Amino acid sequence: MEALLAGTKGRLRELSAKHVESRVVQAMLRYADEYQRAEIATELIGATADLAKLPYARHVALALIRYCGNSHGKAIYEAVAPQAIKLASHSNGAKVLDFLLTQLDAHASTKKFAQKLRNRLQFNDFLQDKERSAIARERLLSKMADKALVHFGFCHDLLRAHTESCLESGYAFRLRTLASHFTEAALHCVASRNGAIGLCDLTLCADAKTRKKYAKALKSRVQICADHKHAYLVLWRLLDVTDDTVSMTKSLLPGCLAAALSPTSSPLRASRMLAFFLNPLIKLDQNEHRALNHRPETLDLGDSLYASKKASSTRYQEITQALAQLLSSSIKVRPAHILASRAAKPLLCAAAASSQLDNEATQAIAAAATSAYFLVNKKVEEEDEEDSNLAENELFPEDEEDSDFDEAAFEAKLDSKPDLPDEDEEEEELVEELAPEPDPNAAPRGQAILEHDIGHATLKAILQHEAKAQNSAPIARAFYDRVQGSIADWVQTNRGALVIEALLRYESNHDFVAKLSTELSAITLNTEKNPGALALAKKFKEGTTVASTSKSKKKRLISAATAHQSKNSIASRDGVAQDTAALFSSDSSSKKKNKKKKKEY
Fold first, then answer.
1. How far apart are CA 9 and CA 6, in angstroms?
2. CA distance linking residue 153 with residue 97, whole number of Å
3. CA gyration radius for the chain?
4. Distance of alpha carbon 10 from its chain centroid, rounded?
5. Collapsing DSSP states into helix, strand and coil, what is residue 149?
6. Secondary structure class of 444 (helix, strand, coil)
7. Whole-angstrom distance, CA of residue 373 vs CA of residue 436
8. In the chain, where are the structural domains located?
9. FRET label pair with 306: which of 95, 272, 314, 371, CA 20 to 30 Å apart?
């Protein structure tokens, strides 16, 4: 090493630009000790920006940043910062710039230099005028998109900073032109949080033609994107603002629904996304709120330009109708598999609360809840948990670095399909492991769903959300018709008692609630070591108290009306008439009013 340093002293910049010699310089940086690296860095750091632009020398620049970035971070930043904007749009320099930001962020002592470099890329240091800054950022982003350099992390950060600044400063019309440059780069942007949020803002300001191009770019990977922790936000935004709901429901909605109902999908992102259209009042997390907080109705894009011509309620209604049809069709085919899916729970609860499922799907859910399927397949979904994020990790590697930072390697990973099993093998495994779907017309098979950790929780949540919505209760009615007469068997276990307790949460005007109360009054509940039975007994007692209270109140009102009728006070008669009008039919009320008028006359 000492001989190499002596022989190459003063010539390292020249040697770094050659093919074979650049590999020698990289090896010197790798195997040198601390003092020898300091000697090499002293000669090369000043030319880091120039080395980053050359084909072979960029590998030397990468090695210099890797092995000297912590100790010489400030010197490398000062050498690169003046040419950072030019490097950002350079095919070789962008790789070096992205790696430099990553290395500076990795150490606490150099993190401040990474932030300074980002501020320089976002034109925050030397352009105080917001309009000039927006024009400069737009020009840089357009150039990077045209040169296929948008897959770098600093480009995603720049995109989000630009879209947020334009939306806050009233320059949203500039995003419409920029959106057309990112149609072929949509899959690259959704790999990170900042890129996905920036693409959501571009989708909001884009025209109808550009939105269709975004949907076309994501169509081949829609099911994988629906499960990804950032990419699903862009799908959500496309369904949210696109006026052509027919095109969206054909290209994006089936894949999103498949991801939401898959038993191997551990995240709930796709299910929450679709549940939003059935129930727009669901609680959003921080990233979801940021991606959806700007509404197309309030966006100013200039003269005669609109983000969306349809009202949001109209778009949601059209998507909800298409989603309800697809969901009902899926439930009819595989109701038990869907009840056993952890990811499908939010969507099923929203569908139950909104009463969007048809009668056949409702009966299928009730049949699956009382079938023997769950007893046979208690642990099917647990065996597939390891494969839940297989496609996500293959398509969007986040912390993995290429050995030579080559763009071709990144594109090869993007174009490669996940190594999933063949369809024939998968079907054979399902035939062997899964029991057949239950027949909706078959007789109930007991409480097998209570043995399934996910199935019983999903059933209980569906009944609770439907009771809270105070609708016609089609699922609860169909379920009770199948368990009627066997309530005593259900309340013996903790899980079964909680399911029956959910039935008591419905309004008392439903006929099945009265039948259930009559059946429970003849059952002795064992509340010892059974929290579910204790909760059921408490709920049953509350319902009985409310019913008795309403009956006694009705009797008091009738007696009060009778007492006041014997008096001649006009004010008293008017007050009693208002109370009795709610208790008797309209005919009897009108007759009494006529009698009172005759007496007054």
1. 5
2. 10
3. 33
4. 56
5. coil
6. coil
7. 7
8. 1-121, 129-333, 340-377+434-543, 567-601
9. 272
